[in-house]
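Quick one:
INPUT:
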């Protein structure tokens, strides 16, 4: 039955909580969901995974929802994706029941998934079954008669950094390709154990840290609420210093956004020398540490390497195609770059005049087996987003260095500033600002100006010690004059910020991203 016919039917799916199967009815009355959208609200947990796989195996389209969304945004996403049913866990019962009522959506509780023994012996039949059943689930979906590879499987909403969040539709085939590509690129294996502390409604947490590891038969251990102390502690338990042998459930892979690593370093700096040496030792033992979702500042990369011995593997991705470019697992990981196209991914750079450039500056366009199918209910936007040959226009301005590694200059409509005829990358200026020893965080953006088109504005969060010194001396932690004079031998004169704001913190979303459109609005009133 075509998806639209199924949707025309009344929404009467109810999963009873008492195990009474008689009330379980599918959207088409046979238990098959025919592409109906199923919202999933659960903290990162086995229940969330059960919700996703259960939806797929029943022919539904999973829509992971974030509880961190304000209610209006949650309602927007639920209404926009025409959710037929919400699956949630006990802890979100009240709020989700009330929200579901507001959008006339069915609501059901996900039953608790019993915990399984962590220790997996690949020789034992039970554990063998367990890992293979998890890893073969995605492939199995493809073999189900009613479900085709091209059918929608997942709708993820974009962060809304550049506009209102759009529903990005991924197919079963695309998801399978992506988990295979990542497994191959980063050597994910059944011996791996991931410590997962990212939200699941974005591709980084969902694909890189959950679906691809599950596909590879790895163990994923959730830390639903990121805790600096908790992460260091978990690594130290995995690899105790002082000659004790490593734990059987040792963490081997970690992936995070740049702010996660910044916070881990702040935690490290507040430890005593013995704790620091235990933490450094433990972190060094992990197999792989990765970073992405926004630019990894060079001072952060260097400091992390000093403390843990890990040169973070930086990669580049987007809701629409998941991951496309990556520094290598083996080989040079170049700071300030996001590496080269992953296997089976094609990347090209298109200049303003529509022609392709091999080494110039332009818009990154991607063709990949993991490309999304469409924006949900936005056929015109979908059409506008592709160029001939099926390449997706990312909206990111990029270039390529002498070794063919891609450099992300930023979102064309938020990070590329037009100042007195020059096109400047806010990310490039931010990277330089972060080398200043007073600056902890920084966001650079262009503000409208009659004479120059735009002027460069830097919002700076000073480091704690600089703030303290400033408080004691009753003067600002940094002045525009001091910043200008420091920048002179690091940046061309037209790249030096001419407006400076000192803030206590930068507003960031769940993925640690700064919404520059919102900041611009705020600074222009
Ligand atoms: N390693 C990286 N370095 C720099 N930027 C990155 C990196 N990884 C991802 N990004 C940025 O994140 C963007 C993708 O994130 P996402 O799909 O969440 O979209 P968004 O820009 O945050 O939101 P929206 O599409 O709603 O505007 C990329 O287009 C790029 O600008």
């Amino acid at each position: 039955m075509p998806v639209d016919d199924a949707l025309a039917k009344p929404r009467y799916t109810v999963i009873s909580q008492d195990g009474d199967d008689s009330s379980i009815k599918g959207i088409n009355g046979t238990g098959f969901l025919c592409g109906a959208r199923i919202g999933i609200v659960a903290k990162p947990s086995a229940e969330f995974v059960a919700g996703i796989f259960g939806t797929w195996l029943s022919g539904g389209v999973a829509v992971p929802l974030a509880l961190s969304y304000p209610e209006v945004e949650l309602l927007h996403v639920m209404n926009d994706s025409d959710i037929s049913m919400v699956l949630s866990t006990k802890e979100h019962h009240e709020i989700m029941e009330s929200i579901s009522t507001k959008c006339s959506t069915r609501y059901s509780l996900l039953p608790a998934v019993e915990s399984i023994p962590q220790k997996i012996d690949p020789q034992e039949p039970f554990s063998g079954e367990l890992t293979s059943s998890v890893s073969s689930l995605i492939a199995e979906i493809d073999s189900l008669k009613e479900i085709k590879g091209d059918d929608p499987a997942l709708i993820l909403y974009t962060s809304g950094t550049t506009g209102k969040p759009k529903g990005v539709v991924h197919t079963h085939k695309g998801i399978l390709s992506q988990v295979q590509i990542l497994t191959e690129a980063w050597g994910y294996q059944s011996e791996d154990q991931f410590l997962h502390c990212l939200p699941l409604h974005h591709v980084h947490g969902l694909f890189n840290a959950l679906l691809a590891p599950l596909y590879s038969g790895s163990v994923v251990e959730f830390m639903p609420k990121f805790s600096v102390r908790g992460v260091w502690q978990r690594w130290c338990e995995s690899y105790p210093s002082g000659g004790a042998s490593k734990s059987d459930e040792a963490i081997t892979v970690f992936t995070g956004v740049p702010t996660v690593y910044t916070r881990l370093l702040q935690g490290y700096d507040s430890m005593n020398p013995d704790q620091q040496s235990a933490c450094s030792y433990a972190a060094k033992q992990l197999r792989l540490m990765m970073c992405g979702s926004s630019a990894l500042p060079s001072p952060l990369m260097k400091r992390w390497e000093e403390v843990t011995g890990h040169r973070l593997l930086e990669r580049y991705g987007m809701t629409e195609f998941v991951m496309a470019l990556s520094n290598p697992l083996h080989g040079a990981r170049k700071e300030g770059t996001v590496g080269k196209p992953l296997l089976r991914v094609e990347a090209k750079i298109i200049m303003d005049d529509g022609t392709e450039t091999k080494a110039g500056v332009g818009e990154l366009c991607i063709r990949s087996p993991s490309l999304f199918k469409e924006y949900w209910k936005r056929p015109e936007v979908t059409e506008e987003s592709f160029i001939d040959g099926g390449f997706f226009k990312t909206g990111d301005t990029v270039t390529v260095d002498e070794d063919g590694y891609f450099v992300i200059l930023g979102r064309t409509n938020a990070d590329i500033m037009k100042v007195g005829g020059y096109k400047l990358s806010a990310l490039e200026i931010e990277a330089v600002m972060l080398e200043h020893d007073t600056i902890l965080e920084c966001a650079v953006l262009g503000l409208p100006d009659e004479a120059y088109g735009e002027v460069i504005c830097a919002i700076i969060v000073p480091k704690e010690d600089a703030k303290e010194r400033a408080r004691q001396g009753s003067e600002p932690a940094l002045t525009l004059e001091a910043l200008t004079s420091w920048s002179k031998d690091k940046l061309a004169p037209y790249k030096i910020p001419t407006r400076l704001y000192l803030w206590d913190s930068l507003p960031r979303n769940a993925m640690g991203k700064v919404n520059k459109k919102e900041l611009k609005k705020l600074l222009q009133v």
